[in-house]
Structure formats: structure tokens, C-alpha cells
């Protein structure tokens, strides 16, 4: 169990009773709309992608009755990228979404009527991922290497900032632009020296398929950090049904706590839930890597999903500086702190 897990376990034990009471009280007015059972309200949540290890807490929270305790019959839907999830939430095609903050913020800039109600992956999973036996052990070793990237995504767009942080020029590394599947294939076939992506996603998949260990040169280790995945809600729901939003945030926080307490059980709850889901070994690795991302220095020891304004300000600074989001926007343009986990 890593240090993140050890810090979260006491929260899970101490907070369950209070969170359950808060959630039940908050969602009592929701009744049983949408065909929920036992006084629960059916609520749809679209993920950022097809289910993988990061999403284990949602399935575990459903299995353990955590969402039901908060009056929610949670229906989990696969996504096809954070941008599509953000737009689906904005158009109220689904009730809530789970999406990457850069995509959420960029869509808000374009007028999509959504807000973040809590980021859970608060340390960016962005990393240069290489095989442990590649000879690349530190950022300086990237000089002269070929790295697969995907133009337009947050890890690629912020890669020049990472290189600057580690003392390299952009021209020191050759970038090969490929789609996400192409990046993995190129790495498995040794056509590139590494790839840029999310360490908690591609890394465990590549390790399982290749039988080789991975090394992650994390952006956060170079002092470059920005928010990643979290819950988003339509502005209309935030205004008209804050009790439901609060219930979902509290239940999600409690589910992340419980999943960190028992990672194996959390991953087991995903079994058979989606035909495109990775196998159990990959899911386990993905969730264990995700647990390392749940806090920053400002939120250490706090319930998952607790956001600090300074971290939001740092995220805005990094992403606007990289041209991913608008410049000069305030935190409340993108996030409401009305529903912080208790």
C-alpha cells in the first residue's frame, strides 16, 4: 500500500457515517425519479473513456451500496473522450460526466454550460513512458530519442513546458505524431523509444502486453502539475438541484476512499461490466497508479475530491500558458466549491 493509500484509509473509516447521512439527507427530495429502486434516483454518469482501472471506485461504490446510501441509482456509461463527455453533459444527454480538466475548461471557454464540481485526479498522470530496460532513466536521457505523441491532447501540448522544466530544448527530442492506439503499437514494436500519455492508463497496458517493466518520467516530478479527471455537471442542474450534485460528489468521494482501502475488491467489482475492459491484472495496475494521483501538497490527508483554490489557479496558469485554455479566467469560471467533500 503506497503512502497515498495509507493517508486515505483513515478517512474512509472515519467519514463513512457522516458522508452517508449527508448524502441521504441531500438526495431525499430527489425521490425515485427515473425508475430507481428503494427510494433512489436514477442518475447517469458518462466516463471519459471505456472503463479502465481509474474507474474502479464507481463500480465498487455501486456494488457496496455507497451510491444507494446517498439516494443514487448510478448508471455508468462508457465515453469516447473527455471532449465528447463534456459536450454530452452540456447538452444534458447525461446527468453528469467524468472528464479531463483541460478538455472541460476548453469547452467552458467555448460556451458549453458545465462546471467542475470536484477534480479527483489532482496530480497530472502525464508522463513520458519508456521501458525500464531502455536505458532512459532520467529526463536528460531523452536527448536524441524518438517519442510518440498525439497532437492536441494535454500531455503533448504541455510537453514543451516539461522539456523546459528539465533543461531540454524542444528540438532535443524527436516527436512522432500518432493516434492513441498507434502510440501503444509503436512502443510495443520498438518503433519509438517511448510515448507521452497518462502513466495510469497506457503504462500498465503496455507492461502487461510486453512483459517488460515501465519507467515513468512524470511531469509532476519536474514541478509541472495541473488537474486531470473529475466530476462535471450541467450549470442547469447545479442551479436547480444542488442536493443531487452534492449527493453525487459525497458518494464519489466515499467510493474513492473505500476503493483505496481495498484495491483488489474495487477492481474485482469491475469484472464483466464492459466487453472492452482490460483484464484484471491491467485494471489492478491502473487503479494502483491512479491512487498516487488523488492529492496535492495542499490536499494531503483530505477526502478525495477536495479541491484547493491554489491548485486550480496553478492549473489555469499552466493550461492557459500552453494555449489549451483562455487567459485571464478566474477559478469560478471552471469550478464551484459548493460541493466540497465533507
The CATH superfamily of the largest domain is identified as Periplasmic binding protein-like II
State the CATH class of the largest domain. Answer: Alpha Beta
Distance between the termini: 24 Å
Radius of gyration: 19 Å
- By secondary-structure content and strand pairing, the structural class works out as alpha/beta
Helix segment tally: 15
Strand order of the largest sheet: 2-1-3-10-4
Instruction: Spell out the helices and strands N to C.
Output: HEHHEHEHEEEHHEHEHEEHHHHHH
Q: CATH topology of the largest domain, which one?
A: D-Maltodextrin-Binding Protein, domain 2
Shape summary = globular
Poorly predicted regions: 1-36
What number of structural domains do the residues give?
2
- Strand percentage lies at 15-25%
Q: Tell me the CATH architecture of the largest domain.
A: 3-Layer(aba) Sandwich
Biggest β-sheet description: 5 strands, mixed
The overall average pLDDT, rounded, is: 90
Helical content class: 40-55%
Number of beta-strand segments: 10
Break the fold down into its secondary structure elements and pairings.
Blueprint: H1 3-27, E1 41-46, H2 56-63, H3 66-69, E2 72-77, H4 82-90, E3 96-100, H5 101-109, E4 114-119, E5 126-131, E6 146-149, H6 154-157, H7 159-165, E7 174-177, H8 180-188, E8 194-198, H9 202-210, E9 214-218, E10 229-234, H10 235-240, H11 242-261, H12 263-268, H13 280-290, H14 309-321, H15 331-334
Parallel strand pairs: 1-2, 1-3, 6-7, 6-8
Antiparallel strand pairs: 3-10, 4-10, 5-8, 5-9
Describe the protein's architecture and organization.
The protein has 342 residues and is an alpha/beta fold. It folds into 2 domains: 235 residues, D-Maltodextrin-Binding Protein, domain 2 (3-Layer(aba) Sandwich), CATH 3.40.190.10; 97 residues, Periplasmic binding protein-like II (D-Maltodextrin-Binding Protein, domain 2, 3-Layer(aba) Sandwich), CATH 3.40.190. 42% of the residues lie in helices and 15% in strands. It contains 15 helices and 10 strands. The chain has a 5-stranded mixed β-sheet with strand order 2-1-3-10-4, with helices on both faces. Strands 7-6-8-5-9 form a 5-stranded mixed β-sheet. Helix 2 crosses helix 11 and helix 9 runs antiparallel to helix 13. The longest helix has 25 residues. It is globular and about 60 Å long.
